[in-house]
Amino acid sequence: MANYWNQEIECMSREDMKKLQDERLVAQVKYVYDNVKYYRDLMDEKGVKPEDISGTDDLHKLPFLSKADLRDAYPYGLLAKPLSECVRIQSTSGTTGKRVVAFYTQNDIDLWEDCCARAIVAAGGTKEDVCQVCYGYGLFTGGPGLNGGSHKVGCLTLPMSSGNTERQISFMRDLGSTILCCTPSYAAYIGETLHDMGYTTDDIKLKAGIFGAEPWTEEMRHSIEESLGIKAYDIYGLTETSGPGVSFECSEQTGMHINEDHFIPEIIDPETGEVLPDGEVGELVFTSITKEAFPLLRYRTRDLCVLSRKKCSCGRTLIKMSKPMGRSDDMLIIRGVNVFPSQIETVLIEKGYTPNYLIEVDRVNNTDTLDISVEINPDMGENIAAQEKALATAMKTMLGINPKVHLVEQKSITRSEGKAVRVIDRRKLHD
Ligand code: ADP
Ligand code: ZN
154 CA to middle of ligand 2, Å? Predict the structure, then answer.
C-alpha cells in the first residue's frame, strides 16, 4: 500500500519544490503547446513560445485560460490526448452557467485519487477507518474523487452518494462510520437529522469530516463539529483541475495545503490580471503540471482567497490557501456595496441561528432590496419583531447596508444534499 502521508513531497524544502515545479512546468508547457491548438493559438497571440518558459519565474508570461475559454472549446478543444487514451469524463455541477467537461487518462485518475488520499490521511484517516462518502456520485467530482482516495488509503468505503438522509444515519450507526465526506451544508443537515431521530453523538463513531465543494464559514465549522462530535476539515478543488483534493486541511485547520507537486497557484488582481504577492486577497489561478488529458495553464478559478507560506505546525511545507470567501461571481453588489453570502452566514450563526437561510435580492423603484429569511430559534423567546430587528442591526454592522430580516418557521427552508443554493437574485430577471 502506497504511503499517502508523503513526507518527501509534503515537507519538501521550498528550493526543492521550486526545482520540481520548474522542471514539470517546462515539460508541461511544451506538451500543451504541441498538443492543444486552442492553447497554442493563445500563446502565439501573446507572442510566447515554450522556449520562453524556463521555470516558474516565467509563469506570468503565459496567457490566462478562463471559464469562457473552456466553454468555447467545449467539448474537445482543450484535449491534449487522443480520446482513445481517455478513460473518464466528469463535469461541473453547473452552479454558474453551462457545464464544463473534463477528461481523464488513467494516470490522471490515479494522481487525482492520490491527492484525495492525502486529504483523508491529513484528516487522520487510516486503513482502520470506515469512510462514508455522501458527496454526489456521477458527473460531479465529489463522490468519485473521495471514493477513489478512500480506497487508496484502504478505508472501508461506503459509496452512499447524497440523499436519503435517514438511511445515511442508519448505515453510519450500523457500520460504525468514522469519517464523513460531503458538502458542509449536507453535513449540517445530517447532524440535524441525527438529533431529530433522537440520537446524540454518543450513538455514532464519527471522528472526522472532510467537507468542501462550496464556501462555508468558521462559524458553520464549529456548528457542524458540535452537532456531529467531530473535527471538520476543509477540502477544495474544481472539476477543471480534476476535482476535490487540489488542497486540503491539516490538523492546524488554518487554511488548506495545496498539492504543489501537481498544481502551481498564483493570486491575481481579478481586474488587471496582475500577480499579487502572498498575503493579498485576489483570484486564485492554477497551472497543472502533471495532468495529461486536460491540462490547464494559468486557469482563472474566479475563487477569491489568500496564499500563505507561514510555517505550519503539521510539518507540511506545502503553501496554504485560505478558505475561499466565495467566487468573484458569488459576490452580490447591493446598493453599490459588495456583499458575500458568507458574511451573512457568519452573523446568523454567531447570533445563535442555524445555517439554514435564504438571501433574496431584488430591485424595487430603482433601489436594490435585500431580504434574508432565517429559521426561528425557539430558545430565543417569543418577541419575533425584536429578534428580527436585532439581527438586522448586526447585519448592518457586518455588511454596511440594512437588510430586511424575516424569521420563518423551523424546517421551512429547504435543506441541501449537495451544494446549497442560498441566493436568489431577481434583479437578473428584470435585466
Ligand atoms: P461548479 O463550478 O459548477 O460548482 P465544481 O463542482 O467543479 O463546479 O465546483 C468547483 C467550485 O466549488 C470551486 O471553483 C469553488 O468555487 C467551489 N469550492 C470547492 N471547494 C470549496 C471549498 N472548500 N470552499 C469554498 N468553495 C469551494
Ligand atoms: Zn499543516
Answer: 22
The confidence band for 1, taking pLDDT boundaries of 50, 70 and 90, is very low
**Which helix H or strand E contains 102, and what residues bound it?**
strand 101-105
pLDDT at res. 431? 56
C-alpha grid cell for residue 392? 438586522
From the CA of 323, give the closest atom in ligand 1. Answer: 24
pLDDT above 80 for 93: no
Stated pTM of the model: 0.95
> Is residue 157 pLDDT above 60, yes or no?
yes
Class of domain 7-16+72-328: alpha beta
Phi, psi of 279 (to 5 degrees): 100, -15
What integer pLDDT is reported at residue 92 of this predicted model?
Answer: 86
- Residues 248 and 353: their CA atoms lie apart, in Å, by 28
Rounded Cα–Cα distance for residues 311 and 93 (Å): 35
Rounded to whole angstroms, how far apart are CA atoms 322 and 308? 8
Q: Is 94 in the pocket of ligand 1 (CB under 6 A)?
A: yes
Say how many residues make up the chain.
Answer: 431
Domain 333-430 has CATH 3.40.50.1010: no
The predicted pLDDT at position 38 comes to 98
List where CATH 3.40.50.12780 sits in the chain.
Answer: 7-16+72-328
